[in-house]
User: Fold these one by one.
Assistant:
Number 1:
Amino acid sequence: MAKEKDVVVNPVLTEPDWFKKYCGIMSEINRQLETGEMTLDHLDTNNEHKNPWGIPDWLRERVNRERTILQAFFGQEFDLIRFVEDVHRYGRKRLSKALKFGWEPHFFPEILMSADATYPGWKIKPEKWFFQASDQGKLLLLQPDGSLVVSNPAYKLGGVTVLIDTRLKPAYNDGQQMYTKDNLLGPIIEDLRKQQKIQDYSPRNSRFHTSGNECEVIKPILAAKLGLKPEQVRLETEIEANVIPQLYTDMPRQNDGDTNTSEWREEFFASRDYRLRGGRSGNGGLAHVYCIDAVRRWSDQGCRFLAVL
């Protein structure tokens, strides 16, 4: 499959309205400090717990980069206040740990990725049947209580801040292929296999030969390692797995569609018995999406998770 050209990101952009608003807030804070209406102690306390004043220095560059990338891909500007608040609440210490594991914070705007949508950076869309299945109410999401609800629609990005696993999906190598430096999920899977909580496989720390149902066993343990609640961790949805390599063209994952392995998706199809999978280069790469028995395992099919902050 021919590789799509990277999106050219233009770093020269006018300041968005939300950033102008932030500058206005900071100006008002300075005024109140000068007049004595606000003290430094008050400012420090409020910043620590609520962060109402804007973007901390350690987060500013990341926010500006996210804004630039989103505008290049979608051709429009988005309010990133929620991104700022979510990452600030997650905290610098936990974020530093996540980055060492190869997980980065990013923002999915609330936007429909419909079959007829035309965004500048969206070159490869999922197969047409995916959109049809969503419109027919056949794509389902598992709830914490074990029930299934319709993903309505499954091709909508949710307006959420997420931690993304940046690793490239590896090419098949007789079942021995591994995700690069899998220093978070690999040890978790290895321990679960040692404890016989998921089926054994060699190598034990491989993400491959895991079933869709076994992914549910992995979720809460991964969440705890990231300092999150179990319901904050899930597999990537089909539309997320399709968009991420095309949106973040500086990630190793930009080539996910060029490798001949597949990954489980978060959506179930019609019932708890079948789950989506996709991404195999020989079947269309980033366009490839299919459903298969959730209890089955393959040496060329892995799993990739995502955390919602």
Number 2:
Amino acid sequence: MLSILVDSLTIMGMFALIIYLKWDFALICVGMAPFLLVILIRFKKEVKNAIRELGKDQASMIALLQNGLESMRTVSAFGRHELEEDHLQQISTETIRAALRVRKIKSFISPVFVLSVSL
């Protein structure tokens, strides 16, 4: 709660200073704010969905590893090493893809904001 208060006061102080120094620039900033909020809301939903998918993939990989450790003797007895390794490889690949998707979305947000602020 304290960080929200500090951030809000900082933004209001910066805006008051901009109005004092250059009121026309402050109007441009206020005009750009709705566009930035729309972009932020859109990407927030995408990031949230991608992170949720990543969490599910990580949970399934951990469950597979735990199951494999618990049934190590059974897997050895029936010679199912290749099947378990293939299954782990598949889940690991899905987890990496989900992590890269999250990174890709997050890396796209920063240049969009920099570009829109610089205009």
Number 3:
Amino acid sequence: MRIKEEGQYISNSRGIFVKARQLLCSLAVGQEVNLGKRTLGKSSKSKHYLSAYRCLKTAELLVVVHSKNLASPCGNYKYRWQIETMFKAFKSSGFNMEDTHVTDSLRLETLFSVMAIAFVIAYDIGDEYEKDHPQTLKKHGYKPKATFRIGLDLILNWLMNHKNKLIRELKRILKKASGYWTGELEGVKNVV
């Protein structure tokens, strides 16, 4: 779980509380450090395992609370963030799933499955587009438009104006996916 490092106090190795930003000011860009078991917050009595990472692109500090024997907590957090990105697309950034009135669990499961497939297709199309048209990062270090959103906008445009382009892209994605299923893509090992 990520914690907000702004204004957050963490005990140092001597047990003295210091702000997270101050405690980790010497952490180099791209470096991850495991802080071990520390007290988080001045009023807390419990200790938690903490790790920190200084992001490569933005030099932003990432501090996570994790279980004891996790190999790369900050590296694993990236996977969780991808899930958060998908949920954002499901909700406010594209599919507006909260507007559905479906309550039957089987129908909801089908809806989620279709949305997950649509998300992957939109993300892949956005990713391919960004290879030829890289976005300029804003001052805060983030892209002006999410990769998924670019893909979704392209799909909607092609659906209205260029159906042949949409069909070509869907065929490309199916060909790519079939490589995963059969294990024919480079670097794919032990495909179940």
Number 4:
Amino acid sequence: MNLDHLIAILAYAVREQWIAEAEALALVARFNAGALDRSAFALPQSEALALPAGVPTSEQRFFHGLDRESGQDYFAIVAQQAANEPSIATWQAALKFLVLGHIAHQAATALGRPLTGEDWQQLRPIALKQMVYLSRFAEQRMVLALIGKPMSQPQVAQRSALYSGSGRAVSFQFGEQLLGDGYVIDYQARDDSRTCDPCIGAEQGGPYLPTTGPMPGDVCLGAGFCRCLRVSRYAPAEAARLRGALQ
């Protein structure tokens, strides 16, 4: 962490109203005096946003043998355990490992085969988007900890569990690539009192062509807590109509 990086984080923190401007200035002064607790620092962005050049196989093996639902549940359990890490950078690295493994595993499970380099290139923008979100989360934890107002362990645990939503979305997106012509997709919102409006709207807005439209875990306000589905249905006339509407 250098001064320029810290100032950029603090400027964003003030804009987002995580902290007041006076608190940000005080942190800069403490940094210059060497008085900041470095265990509260987030990963540098060069590390936080870095992605493997090839398929993240070691991360993926962490979820070996799990299907979509059990993989998502396991992610939540391990992410909540990682919230106990005393160092923010260590916690961030652990959650990054989990997110990359979960995304890769869910894609491979949906395809029914190991991922190829081409598959990973398709996944990289999705993974990078999650790393940006995670980086901001870690920076928010950092500045709040440095001013003596740290997030509680339950807060960190619950928010960390949300990151499994990206893997759920990937599971449907990649699985639908295997469908032939003539199929449409019905979004099925989970029918209970916690179902969010975007998921209800996604159900009402269907059907969709495979790999298009809202994805559970992505459109959902609950992210990693989403249990909605996308279900394929062979309907050539509807598929033709939807293809025509896109042209």
